[in-house]
Amino acid sequence: MSERGETLAIAKGVSKSFDAGRIRVLDGVSLKVHAGEMIALWGASGSGKSTLLHLLGGLDVPDQGELTVCGLDPRSEAHRLELRRHRIGFVFQLHNLIPDLTVEENLRVPALAIGRTAQATRARIDALVEEVGLGPRLSHRIQDLSGGERQRTAICRALMNEPRLLLADEPTGSLDELTGATVFAWMKRLAEKHGVAVVLATHERRFAEACHRIVRVRDGRLEEIAG
Ligand SMILES: Nc1ncnc2c1ncn2[C@@H]1O[C@H](COP(=O)(O)OP(=O)(O)O)[C@@H](O)[C@H]1O
Ligand SMILES: [Mg+2]
């Protein structure tokens, strides 16, 4: 387990509702995320895991409460843009890669958004694909890859711009058991190697137990439980 480092994200009394307040999803939740740790957000379908990840990643804004992510305020549009470009990596249940493009072309997309040089982009891509064993697949199109290879590509894409925080929303949810376990292990290894904090939404107990902390999402609240 990594040493707990700097606090990267702080949520304090955060609430979020949908449908003009009729669907109350998060009811004054608080959470701290530290550098180097992997936290499981564990809860049933519909409990609010994705909602919380979206708030942490600047993809949505809270109705109430305080939120600071990598020293930025996700209520500001400029800060949300900075978060999405530089500070946060997102991995979704369905990879959300561009199917007609190759692995390499998909990995170039985030680098384009921050204007990284061709040489630095090349070096970053090579290092990441090497780590997850995707080197031989670099010029293959996403549509020709297996589910596990697609998710490994998606993890590399999320790490391209060297984020401090990796937000993963049921990244193994569409994979078979063995492939899911492999993808989880890669993500954990990369997180530890690159020193990023990971917040992993999952409904699977076995993945939650392999994280450093388990935070249960239930009835609009968070509860830290022993792993
Ligand atoms: N944009 C939205 N509009 C209306 N309801 C939403 C929206 N996003 C999520 N919800 C509702 O909020 C609840 C929590 O959803 P979600 O965060 O996706 O849960 P989980 O990821 O744990 O499955 C669900 O009842 C869902 O239907
Ligand atoms: Mg979800």
Could you walk me through the main structural features you see in this protein, from its secondary elements to its overall organization?
The chain has one domain: P-loop containing nucleotide triphosphate hydrolases (Rossmann fold, 3-Layer(aba) Sandwich), CATH 3.40.50. It is built from 7 helices and 9 strands, in the order βββαβαβαααβαβαββ. It has helices spanning 49-56, 77-87, 103-113, 118-131, 147-159, 177-194, 205-209, and strands at 7-18, 23-34, 38-42, 64-69, 88-91, 165-169, 197-202, 213-218, 221-225. The strands form 2 sheets. The protein has a 6-stranded mixed beta sheet, with helices on both faces. Bound molecules: adenosine-5'-diphosphate (ADP) and magnesium ion (MG). Magnesium ion is lined by residues 49-50, 169-170, 201.
Features:
227 residues, alpha/beta, Rossmann fold, six-stranded mixed beta sheet, three-stranded antiparallel beta sheet, 7 helices, 35% helix, 27% strand, globular, binds adenosine-5'-diphosphate, binds magnesium ion
